[in-house]
Amino acid sequence: MALDPVHLMERKRVDFLVLGSGIAGLSFALKAADHGTVCIVSKDRPLETATRYAQGGIAAVMYDPDSYDKHIADTLSAGDDMNDPEVVRMTIVEAPDRIRELIDWGVRFDKDKSTGLYDLAREGGHSEYRVLHHKDKTGLEIQEALVRRVEAHPNIELLDSHFAIDILTQHHLGEYITRRTKGITCYGAYILNKRSNEIFTVLARTTMMATGGIGMVYNTSTNPAVATGDGVAMVYRAKGLIEKMEFVQFHPTSLYHPPDKPSFLITEALRGFGAVLKTLDGKEFMQKYDPRESLAPRDIVARAIDNEMKVRGDDHVLLDATHLDATDLIFHFPTIYGKCLSIGIDFTRDPIPVVPAAHYLCGGIKTDTRGRTSIQNLYASGECASTGLHGANRLASNSLLESLVFSHHAATDAIERAKNTPWCLDIPDWDAEGTVLNEEMVLITQSLKELRSIMSNYVGIVRSNLRLQRAHDRLEILVRETEDLYEKSVVTTEICELRNMLNVAHLIVKMAYERKESRGLHFSIDYPKTAESN
Question: Which residues are catalytic?
Fold first, then answer.
């Protein structure tokens, strides 16, 4: 339901404010909307989310010989046993119910024509076939189905091309807030209309943070351009609890085609289908790193590829599917086939050049099992949240599942809380007095280039104390310069995103430096854990 432009600058009051329009935000909104008014803030078009780019699918135990215990064991193993066992069991046991809800909302998963059962795929780290999918564009199928439901709901208002600047707390009432302050409460958010560049206030009884990931802090990422860590940064500035930011997952196989921004993902399901990783001279190498070879968990595969590239001096490795049935390949992976053909690669005859790319944040805003954050009336779900499911490394295709489960719990809790939560009417509107329009975009673009270079070179797949210290020192300068620019400038999306990405980068570096061990996605040459090379 579109918002009348005439009312954009009026203060809005809603029962549920949702920041983000991926699977986490939309599934929460659909459940909350039957109990009150909902406003969804989408930074871009509602379809432009990380959800839509998810190729592989969603993991759930569906048939024998699979079992909850097997899925739980795979999740704990991939997460290097840093997961919360209670959260892992809760998520996996609830998976079939959440899958049925998606199907009821119109999502179509592929079925085997001969049996009528769901055609389950297998991915790295999984001991069984358990990934439901829609060809190799599962995320797009889910995103489109949820957007259709949201747009048809009379209680939901969807604001596209709007950007959340900051959440509202007692700080905006003039109170001094620190990380030790008890009872910090969220009252809504300041929202920027990207078309008019006007800022208005949304007061909410409860707020859901579902802003997605942080991939844009790196030079190479599979994430869409909207993944600038906005939610994590907003909660950090509001003195909320953030954890495990050192665990940034690099997907082992993005298409090596430097002009692409973001990098095109080559789903792990292709390796589950039988494709094999090789060096440029056609030799398999994963047997040197893990007995599961090309189907090892992502952290191991990404480090192996990174090491082979460094040792050999190559820009990429190869993913070879040429030994597989061509008709089956094209049927199951039509999106990848079409993309590869567009750059002159027929993956039924030619190996695919691949390289690791920043893909997923396993840490983020700390939540409990109901999606509640350390800030009252503020929930978090999806990639911006740290629920305890993933531990030190995410098992493939557990992310969409996590979003569904935690948004379900959050909606159930928020519906009850909203009944007795008043709006805070004393919050002042945005004050832009004394700011000027910054016409020197080079100040922002150059800082962004520096940020991405620092993170990619010093805080990537393999780290060291020296690299992290250099990253910290250089980021400190960028943070000071950007905060000064932000205070003096008329607010724009570009300056806000840069500020958010610097906050996120600072947290990644800080928490990586504090972890004096190699664990999961955080691998430091100063704390070798295994025989894996650096």
Answer: 298
